Amino acid sequence: MDRQLAPDWFSKPADSIRLLMQRRGITVAELARSLENGIDTFRAIYDGTRAIDEKIARILSNQLGGSSDFWLSRQKHFETALDRVVDVARQESDAWLNLVPSPNGRRPAKKLSEERLRQELRQRLIFFGVSKLDAWERRYGSALGATRFRTSKSYTSSVDSLLLWLRRGEIEAELTSTRPWNPENLRDRIDELRKLTTISSPRRFLPKLRSLLAAAGVALVVVKAPPGCRASGAARMVSPDKAMLLMSFRHRADDQFWFTLFHEIGHLLLHHGTTCVDGDDLPTSQQIETEANDFASFCLIPIHRTEELEELPPSSSSVIRFSVSVGISPGITVGQMQYRKIIGYDRLNHLKRRWSWEDIEPALV
After folding, report:
1. What is the structure's pLDDT at 205?
2. By the 8 A CB rule, do 267 and 293 touch?
């Protein structure tokens, strides 16, 4: 084919892998078990950083169908198409390097050899899955505008880190099987989701939470925030049929986790997946945040119990009795009392559950 007439886009082998997994009903876990180093190798193949070699081609052939030659050819076509796209991106290399963060989170040196420059461009193209700069700008360049994040007012987040965190969440969401997005189904599950707040261990409640949300078309994804990223949660439609609810477990306390979760659910139901930066200067941002905050508060503490909460004595025994009657953890009650300024932020914190990453990570496999 004439190079000038060749398509200026690329398709990762992951596109074929995902399609065949869906057709054959094969899960990520099932396919990962057949690969050396399991899920780590699968993720590398899926995000395009690990090439399909003869050994992997045989495994994919056995598990998904197609011959080994098909998978090796699929990899070769991907590499050829990617080289064409890199040639085009090379003409706007300054813009690519200045606007689009590297997957490793580091800005490259100002002067690069031709080989290193192409490598930097290649990494960005593969990671973000876009072929043109204007496509990246439409989807990610306005991330602090049209698609905004809810972050703590106490911190300023690095734009690069936020974008990398969001993209890693999207990749994980692509790997998560869900039913088609159904907002009414999600709304109907609020009470079931609330009940999970009484389960203390993440390795016990996260699988159940993930399953409930998946049934409503929401992929729950937990991605540890990279250095410089202070986001606690985000919500976004990753396709017309799938919503993403991305959590970072940044505070690792039960009141913060569950409030953030219901806050992001509020964005999905009220604002079609938009999330906001606290203090954003857009005219509607504060209203949107207030609506999501109110939604989360009333999910956790039913509106007909709010007067009782406001008159609750600030003692451990009173908080525990109230929490049991409402069906939430005592830590959430304390968090809501603090949020509503019923008590100070230094009171009753011993009732909150706090987790380490050693508690959380086993539930993420």
Report:
1. 96
2. no
**167 and 175 Cβ atoms separated by less than 8 Å:** no
Kindly state the helix (H) or strand (E) to which residue 32 belongs, with its residue range: helix 28-33
Rounded to 5 degrees, what angle do the CA atoms 108, 280, 229 make? 40
Strand order in the sheet with 218-222: 150-151, 231-239, 242-247, 218-222
The model's pTM is 0.87
- Residues 123, 128, 130, 134, CA torsion sign: negative
CA distance 260 to 264: 6
One DSSP character per residue, 167-201 reads: HHHHHHHHTS--PPP-HHHHHHTHHHHHHGGG---
Give the number of other Cβ atoms within 10 Å of residue 275's Cβ. 26
- Residue type at 196 in one-letter notation: L
Find where tokens 């050899």 sit. 113
In this prediction, the residues of the chain whose per-residue pLDDT falls under 70 are 1-7, 141-157, 273-285, 365
pLDDT tens-digit readout, 152-171: 554 444 778 888 888 999 99
pLDDT tens figures, 122-137: 999 999 999 999 888 8
3-state SS, residue 158: coil
Q: Specify the pairing of strand 218-222 against strand 150-151.
A: unpaired
pLDDT on residue 9: 80
Given a contact cutoff of 8 angstroms between Cβ atoms, the answer to whether 256 and 230 are in contact is no
Widest Cα–Cα separation across the chain: 78
For residues 16 and 77, give the distance between their C-alpha atoms in angstroms, rounded to a whole number: 12
- Phi, psi (5° rounding) for residue 231? -70, 145
Which phi and psi angles does 72 have, rounded to 5°? -65, -40
pLDDT of residue 145: 54
- What is residue 151's predicted lDDT score, i.e. its pLDDT? 53
Assign 246 to helix, strand or coil: strand
